[in-house]
# Entry
Amino acid sequence: MNIRTKFGVIAAGLVVATSVVAFTKGHATVVPNSDLKWKNLEIPGVAAAQVTGDMTKGPSRFFLKYPVGLEAPMHAHSADHFGVIVSGWVTITTDGKSTKLGPGSYISFTGKMPHAAKVEGNEPVVFFIDAKGPWDVLMH
# Structure
Protein backbone atom coordinates (compact mmCIF):
# COMPACT_ATOMS: atom_id res chain seq x y z
CA MET A 1 0.00 0.00 0.00
CA ASN A 2 1.52 3.33 -1.05
CA ILE A 3 1.49 6.48 1.08
CA ARG A 4 -1.50 7.99 -0.77
CA THR A 5 -3.59 4.87 -0.19
CA LYS A 6 -2.61 4.76 3.51
CA PHE A 7 -3.48 8.44 3.90
CA GLY A 8 -6.84 7.87 2.18
CA VAL A 9 -7.69 4.97 4.52
CA ILE A 10 -6.76 7.03 7.61
CA ALA A 11 -8.77 10.04 6.37
CA ALA A 12 -11.83 7.85 5.69
CA GLY A 13 -11.55 6.39 9.20
CA LEU A 14 -11.44 9.87 10.73
CA VAL A 15 -14.54 10.92 8.79
CA VAL A 16 -16.45 7.86 10.06
CA ALA A 17 -15.25 8.42 13.66
CA THR A 18 -16.21 12.09 13.52
CA SER A 19 -19.66 11.20 12.18
CA VAL A 20 -20.26 8.75 15.03
CA VAL A 21 -19.25 11.35 17.61
CA ALA A 22 -21.41 14.02 15.98
CA PHE A 23 -24.55 11.84 16.25
CA THR A 24 -24.03 10.58 19.82
CA LYS A 25 -26.86 11.77 22.04
CA GLY A 26 -25.86 13.34 25.36
CA HIS A 27 -27.54 13.20 28.74
CA ALA A 28 -28.12 15.80 31.42
CA THR A 29 -29.11 15.45 35.08
CA VAL A 30 -30.42 18.58 36.77
CA VAL A 31 -31.57 18.34 40.39
CA PRO A 32 -32.56 21.51 42.26
CA ASN A 33 -31.71 21.54 45.97
CA SER A 34 -35.45 21.70 46.71
CA ASP A 35 -35.94 18.30 44.99
CA LEU A 36 -33.38 16.43 47.10
CA LYS A 37 -34.96 13.66 49.17
CA TRP A 38 -32.91 13.14 52.34
CA LYS A 39 -33.05 9.67 53.91
CA ASN A 40 -31.59 8.74 57.28
CA LEU A 41 -28.85 6.12 57.15
CA GLU A 42 -28.02 3.52 59.82
CA ILE A 43 -25.75 5.92 61.73
CA PRO A 44 -27.84 8.31 63.88
CA GLY A 45 -28.02 11.81 62.38
CA VAL A 46 -26.32 10.81 59.10
CA ALA A 47 -28.46 11.26 55.98
CA ALA A 48 -28.04 10.90 52.22
CA ALA A 49 -29.83 12.39 49.22
CA GLN A 50 -29.46 10.30 46.08
CA VAL A 51 -28.77 12.13 42.80
CA THR A 52 -27.96 9.29 40.37
CA GLY A 53 -27.63 5.53 40.63
CA ASP A 54 -28.53 3.42 43.66
CA MET A 55 -26.01 3.71 46.48
CA THR A 56 -27.00 0.27 47.84
CA LYS A 57 -26.47 -1.57 44.54
CA GLY A 58 -23.71 0.07 42.52
CA PRO A 59 -22.07 3.29 41.37
CA SER A 60 -23.90 6.41 42.47
CA ARG A 61 -23.66 10.09 43.20
CA PHE A 62 -25.24 11.50 46.32
CA PHE A 63 -25.08 14.16 48.99
CA LEU A 64 -24.04 12.94 52.45
CA LYS A 65 -24.84 14.95 55.59
CA TYR A 66 -23.06 14.63 58.95
CA PRO A 67 -24.70 16.28 61.98
CA VAL A 68 -23.05 18.78 64.32
CA GLY A 69 -20.85 16.96 66.84
CA LEU A 70 -20.45 13.75 64.82
CA GLU A 71 -17.19 11.89 65.38
CA ALA A 72 -16.97 8.97 62.95
CA PRO A 73 -14.30 6.52 64.17
CA MET A 74 -11.75 4.96 61.83
CA HIS A 75 -13.63 3.19 59.03
CA ALA A 76 -13.45 2.45 55.31
CA HIS A 77 -15.77 1.82 52.36
CA SER A 78 -15.56 -1.04 49.85
CA ALA A 79 -16.15 1.31 46.91
CA ASP A 80 -13.58 3.86 45.82
CA HIS A 81 -15.17 7.25 46.27
CA PHE A 82 -14.44 10.88 45.57
CA GLY A 83 -16.06 13.93 47.09
CA VAL A 84 -16.28 17.65 47.64
CA ILE A 85 -17.32 19.40 50.83
CA VAL A 86 -20.32 21.58 50.01
CA SER A 87 -20.85 23.19 53.42
CA GLY A 88 -19.58 23.00 56.99
CA TRP A 89 -16.19 22.03 58.34
CA VAL A 90 -14.79 18.58 59.03
CA THR A 91 -11.45 17.18 60.17
CA ILE A 92 -10.48 14.07 58.21
CA THR A 93 -7.85 11.78 59.68
CA THR A 94 -6.13 9.25 57.46
CA ASP A 95 -2.70 7.69 57.37
CA GLY A 96 -1.86 9.31 60.74
CA LYS A 97 -2.54 12.86 59.54
CA SER A 98 -5.51 15.12 60.41
CA THR A 99 -6.63 17.88 58.04
CA LYS A 100 -9.41 20.41 58.64
CA LEU A 101 -11.46 20.90 55.46
CA GLY A 102 -14.17 23.37 54.50
CA PRO A 103 -16.39 24.14 51.52
CA GLY A 104 -14.79 23.40 48.16
CA SER A 105 -12.26 20.92 49.62
CA TYR A 106 -11.73 17.62 47.79
CA ILE A 107 -11.39 14.11 49.24
CA SER A 108 -10.75 10.73 47.69
CA PHE A 109 -10.51 7.32 49.32
CA THR A 110 -9.54 4.30 47.23
CA GLY A 111 -8.58 0.74 48.03
CA LYS A 112 -10.59 0.69 51.29
CA MET A 113 -8.36 3.43 52.76
CA PRO A 114 -9.23 3.83 56.48
CA HIS A 115 -10.24 7.31 57.63
CA ALA A 116 -12.04 9.07 60.47
CA ALA A 117 -14.11 12.26 60.42
CA LYS A 118 -15.03 14.85 63.04
CA VAL A 119 -17.53 17.62 62.36
CA GLU A 120 -16.13 20.99 63.43
CA GLY A 121 -18.19 24.06 64.29
CA ASN A 122 -21.92 24.53 64.71
CA GLU A 123 -23.32 23.49 61.32
CA PRO A 124 -23.71 20.08 59.67
CA VAL A 125 -21.21 19.02 57.03
CA VAL A 126 -22.55 18.22 53.57
CA PHE A 127 -20.41 16.28 51.10
CA PHE A 128 -21.09 15.47 47.46
CA ILE A 129 -19.90 11.89 46.87
CA ASP A 130 -19.16 10.01 43.64
CA ALA A 131 -19.04 6.34 44.69
CA LYS A 132 -17.78 3.78 42.20
CA GLY A 133 -19.74 0.89 43.75
CA PRO A 134 -22.24 0.04 46.49
CA TRP A 135 -21.89 2.24 49.61
CA ASP A 136 -21.07 0.49 52.89
CA VAL A 137 -19.20 1.22 56.11
CA LEU A 138 -16.42 -1.12 57.27
CA MET A 139 -15.36 -0.41 60.84
CA HIS A 140 -11.66 -0.68 61.77
Q: What stands out?
A: The radius of gyration is 22 Å. The first strand starts at residue 38 and ends at 40. The chain has one domain: 33-139. Residues 44 and 67 are 9 Å apart (CA to CA).
